[in-house]
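FAQ: What does a ligand-bound record look like?

Like this one, built around flavin mononucleotide:
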Amino acid sequence: MINRVCDCLGCKYPVLEGGLAYVGNGRLAAAVSNGGGFGQVGSAGRTPDGLARELETAFALTDQPLGVNVPISEHRDPEPVFRVIERYAAHLKAVSLSAGNPRPWIGPLKQWGLRVITLASTPAQAKKAEQAGADLVVCEGYEAGGHDGPAELTTLILVPLTVQAVSIPVIAAGGISDGLAAAAAFALGAEGIQMGTRFVATVECEAHEAYKAALLQASSEDTVVMERSLGHVTRVLRSPFVDRVLAQERATPGDLEALLPLISGRNNARAALEGQMDDGYVNCGMGVGSIHEILPAAEVVQRVMAEALRQLQESSARVAAWMS
Ligand SMILES: Cc1cc2nc3c(=O)[nH]c(=O)nc-3n(C[C@H](O)[C@H](O)[C@H](O)COP(=O)(O)O)c2cc1C
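The answer part, i.e. the structure of the complex:
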């Protein structure tokens, strides 16, 4: 294969589904892979048994390659999660590691025959991951939904700097919800893209309909960062509930005890899975403004790639005309 990401992951298109806490279900991962992308079952917000169930669902729905995302520090004890991965390793292609130090897990995952994808938010982090043996690195810019890096580098800055810094393939993430943004990422040197928010707004995602409807209504100005006073950068959809979180943060900055009742994972699940949007928060990236339809995940993959190609052809013809 000509594309190194597709070669590594065994997929047709270099389009990854990012880990999606609570809403990265097996049916969605299978649909992404059936569409030619690379689907990943999310482990965040699931017990090890829950993860195993979603993996079984995904395996029943596709014979295409699949992955698992493990945000290491989101698990009180990540060990049982990795035991599930070891158990299913023969049926998996890759594991993506985020939120924490990937180094101790890269060796064992490779021994189980898996490819390792790590998440980086600075070129230095990507370099470290490459030195530790990562096969692919996802560079996630500040536009992304969910937890972003503290350096707050945008995708436009992060991707080309990282492409220069490492020799493993770089996958761009953050703010990519359509073919135009994908084209920009490819022009910056990314060999693949990863999307999160776009895949929430799909038929197969288990996110509540109220969450999906809110994504369709939102513009790119409707996301906001919370938990900054705690040293985290968490991009969520703005709502009256999130305004309460921000007001509490202003009143008691950095006070985890005061903030925990508002920012707990339970409140994420309540909105994302149960649709109680007034009693919880949902992750959402700035690229939400270009999501206008709930689509089957396979169609998202194929449309994004077809549109990226068209955009690149048009923009190169446009620039060539300026130069002539
Ligand atoms: C609902 C949601 C949940 C997420 N949960 C995780 C997670 O559990 N692990 C992880 O590594 N990244 C997580 N992310 C980040 C995505 O995997 C992806 O990198 C990011 O969404 C890309 O930016 P975009 O939202 O602009 O597409 C999440 C993002 C969203 C929108």
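Follow-up question: can I read anything off the structure? Yes, for example: The longest strand covers residues 66-71.
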